[in-house]
Amino acid sequence: MFSISLYKINQKRKDKKHFKLTNRWRVYFDSFLTNENTESLTMQQKYYKKLHSTEELMAFFEASLKYIHSDQIKVRGEFRQFLRENKRFFVSLGYVYGKKGSISKAYFAFICEQLCINNPEEYDEITKIMMEYALEPSIYCRENALKALYAFGNIDAVLEVFIKLSRNNIIHHRKLVTDGLLEFKGDSAALAESLYDHFDKFNPEYQVALIDFFRFSGERLKNKLIKLLKQRATDKDIVCALLRYYRKYPVQKYKDTILSYLTIPNDEEWECVSTAALALGKYPGEDTIHALKSALTSKYWYVRLNAARSIAKLGVEEDKLMDILQGQDFYAKEQLIYHITNRKEKMIQNV
Amino acid sequence: MYNIDLFLFVTGIFFAFYMFGYATYITLGGTISIWNLRKNRLKERMENELDHDFFFPISILVPAYNEAKTILTTVDHLSEMDYKLFEIVVIDDGSTDTTALLIIDNYNLKKDYKPIRIQVPSKEILEVYSGEFNSIPIVLVRKKNGGNKADAINAGINISSYPYFVSMDADEILQADALKYSARLFFEDDKVIAVGGQIRIANGVEFEKAMPIDMRMNRNPIVSMQTLEYIRAFIASRIFHDTFNSNLNISGGFGLFKKDAVIAVGGYDSNSVGEDMDLVLRLHVHHRTHQIPYSIKYTPDAVCWTQAPFKLKDLGKQRARWHRGLIQCMWNYRVLFLNPKFKAISLFSYTYYFLYELMAPFTELLGIIVICVAVMTNKLNISFAILIALLYLCFCVLHTILLYMSKFLQRGDKIYKGDVAWTIFMAFAEVLLFRPVLFMIRIYATLTYKRKLHSWSSIERENL
User: Fold this and answer.
1) Tell me: the pLDDT tens digits for B190-247?
2) Would you call A165 helix, strand, or coil by DSSP?
3) Which positions in chain A touch B43 (Cβ < 8 Å)?
4) In b/e form, how buried is each residue of A315-329, taking b as 16+ CB within 10 angstroms?
5) Can you tell me the distance from the alpha carbon of A146 to that of A133, in angstroms, rounded to the nearest whole number?
6) Alpha carbon A86 to chain centroid distance?
7) Which of A79, B122, B186, B297 could disulfide-link B154, Cβ–Cβ 3.0 to 4.6 Å?
8) Pairing state between β B86-92 and B136-143
9) What is the DSSP string of B207-237?
10) Who's near B387: CB < 8 A, 6+ residues apart?
């Protein structure tokens, strides 16, 4: 009870202090930005030292929001100039916060991302510090550091950090990686190319995330990724990710490769078979229909489901499906009827 | 006379250890929980959070039996979720009222003949309707009455499209940010198979777009006492047990589960009265027995608001059912009793539930017998007994108030001025009135366990 009351009082005191500190930083920024003399943009040592305290850093960040999000381009530009002039201080702060706990480290990484300390062409100390932070066991610290690297927009840095994460066997959730890469502020196309060129240096978890990133970022790798799909020994998750890629960006000349996944023994890799069945909905042809009809009788639910979906999507006429519709396989029939009916209903609605 | 002395001596020693164990456990639990809440707020303040629009697609399963009064409000609130990709699956468990019709008409659902994959056992599914509301897929499943929530949820699991599902009740309001805060725990740790959220009392709370705007404590004493009880359970106990992955229960009111993990253990057990606890215990036993790494988490940030019974009779019905469910689960999973193979679950959680939940009514009864014997044999040191009783009263009241004050440390929560005095008053009333009532209910539930295990009677509800 006492400790909670104390916490409440302490919190109020902290809020007051935070407000005061934020105002002080605002006044400080104003004094800089109204001064015509650009030499004076360098922060004084005593102010830099204040930023060793997390409370001061939070106040600094809150005060800076006014300038970062200012409606006036001039103010935004001047503040950016101020940050660039004082970049060496942020480098030093990176080392200071590197010795603190993971929560503080994550916060410093967040500040670097938000203030976008670096430009894409820069690969310097602050980038290296963020790469170190990204290897931390704390997921928040890693995520914030990676976000900072994406915001900096340097391709080599992003490439290197994922190689390091793979080497150290540090797994970051694949969705976080994909979503993060899509936020990359530099040349996204060049990043995709570069990641592809070093693809074998990443562990399978990251490889899947990267393929998902390629899928969301465009079709430019469609003639390269097929090599991976042709390698039969590739990890199951990677194959599925690649098949999803070729579902989004169909290339008819690769149909045979995709078809070949529909005929692999179901027991071993039914997930790949199922994804291949779905992808084939974008690859019309007699051979596709024949293969999908066979897949309709698979013992795996998802294979049947996706095969039926693809057959419906391909617009196959019912008379070509009579062998299934009048056959003895109740499950195949059920799936097929449902999806064909759905297709018809949609067509009627569209008319 | 010697036998009475011996009896009083042995029971005295037993109660000394029993109470010491209880006080230690809840003090430790409360302290660790508040520490964790404090750390969570620090992390929030310092941007140590995963913040995404959505993490993975989720099916929200809403079992409903004769819920015509609340179902539309529930679904409307669900459609306000601050999450990008989810579907709402309402399972009409053979309602005799207009539950299904209301949903079909209100959301303009059309009959859907999609093939259903039966992965966990449930009573026959009669019809499926589907449609969209505000671009959110809504599915209505009409099935034969299974007589319990477990069967309805199993039907929902069979029909749902997404790899994760939320299980909740039809008379609840899921806070708009609950999915976001619970789903991200799966990203923080790959081993997570289920996440429980905090259940809070909705009576008297005002909502706007599935977010509470006025959380003043309801002045109905029965509701207030339950509010305090829920705070103790969901703040102290759950957070504490979460620190060593040994929560024995994810409340049926709100739980987010990995569908594969639940299917692997056969889904919900329709023979279980405490189906929520049964499932969690089964998940623990299954994963430990097969040495599969796993984690069952709890987050107080994901909040679901439920209606508490506001009449003593209804409260009695509900609590008797809960206690029978507890007895059934504890008996069915007795393998966990002092079994080193199950580590902290067995040593701490199961033992705590056994001693201070399951056996509590008997211990209390024994206490009454001991006092009577001591009075009759003139062995009772009255002044010392009063002192001990007062100490216990103060301890319980302080514990309750302390945990109530921890609302400061909860995301988006606050303490209303008028509530503090009311809470202090209710904390006393709870120990002096509510606990004796609960004691009687538990004794009754234990005595009628066999006869009334599967009996179910409805509880009066207000419109949300």
Assistant:
1) 999 999 999 999 999 999 999 999 999 999 999 999 999 999 999 999 999 999 999 9
2) helix
3) 103, 140
4) ebeeeebeebeeeee
5) 9
6) 30
7) B122
8) parallel
9) EETTEEEE-PPP--HHHHHHHHHHHIIIIII
10) none
| Total Cβ atoms within 10 A of residue A14 | 14
Q: How far is CA B430 from CA A210, B357, B393, in A?
A: 57, 17, 10
**Which amino acid is it at A343?**
R
CB of B46 within 8 Å of any CB in chain A? yes
Q: Cβ contacts (< 8 Å) between A212 and chain B: which residues?
A: none
- pLDDT level of residue B276 (50, 70, 90 thresholds): very high
The answer to whether A183 and A150 are in contact (CB under 8 A) is yes
Tokens of B347: 């040593």
**Euclidean distance between CA atoms B43 and B46, whole angstroms:** 5
Q: How far is B6 from chain A (nearest CA, A)?
A: 40
Confidence of residue A264 (pLDDT cuts 50, 70, 90): confident
Determine contact: A300 vs chain B, CB below 8 A. no
A172 near A133, Cβ under 8 Å?
A: no
Per-residue DSSP letter, B415:
-
CB B39 within 8 A of CB B67: no
Backbone angles phi, psi at A316, to 5 degrees: -65, 135
ipTM exceeds 0.90: no
Model confidence pLDDT, tens digit, residues A14-52: 889 999 999 999 988 888 777 655 556 677 788 889 999
State whether A140 and B48 contact (CB < 8 Å).
yes
The answer to whether B278 and B272 have CB atoms below 8 angstroms apart is yes
- 3-class SS of residue B64: strand
What stretch of H or E contains B129?
strand B125-133
Task: Please enumerate in sequence order all residues whose Cβ is within 8 A of that of B214, keeping only pairs 6 or more positions apart, or say none.
Answer: B205, B206
Write the DSSP string, B135-147: TEEEEEEEE---S
Residue B115: strand, helix, or coil: coil
Note whether A134 and A146 are within 8 A (CB): yes
Q: Check CB contact of B415 with chain A, cutoff 8 Å.
A: no
CA of B411, closest CA in chain A: separation in Å?
A: 14
Residue B238 C-alpha from the chain's centroid: 10
Confidence (pTM): 0.92
Mean pLDDT value of segment A110-139: 92
User: What tokens appear for A292 in the block?
Assistant: 């999908």
Q: What is the largest CA-CA distance in chain B?
A: 79
Query: CB–CB of B34 and A3 under 8 A?
Result: yes
Assess B84–A contact: CB distance below 8 Å, yes or no.
no
**Rounded-to-integer distance, Cα A13 and Cα B224, Å:** 32
Per the listing, tokens 């603190």 go with A100
Q: Which residues of A touch B34 (CB under 8 A)?
A: 3-4
3-state secondary structure of B302: strand
Residue B167, pLDDT > 90, answer yes
Q: What single string gives the DSSP state of each residue in B338-386?
A: T-GGGHHIIIIIIHHHIIIIISHHHHHHHHHHHHHHHHHTT---HHHHH
Contact status of B38 with chain A (Cβ, < 8 Å): yes
Euclidean distance between CA atoms B102 and B98, whole angstroms: 6
* Structure tokens, B1: 């006379």
Q: Which residues of A touch B114 (CB under 8 A)?
A: 338
The encoded tokens of residue B174 equal 């899921």
Q: What is the pLDDT of residues B111-150, one digit of tens each?
A: 999 899 999 999 999 999 999 999 999 999 999 999 899 9
Long-range contacts of A222-230 (CB under 8 A, 24+ apart): A222/A246, A222/A249, A222/A251, A223/A251, A224/A196, A225/A196, A226/A251, A226/A254, A226/A257, A228/A199, A229/A254, A229/A257, A229/A258, A230/A257
Contact predicate B248/B355, CB 8 Å? no
Neighbouring C-alpha atoms within 13 Å toward the C-beta of A232? 7
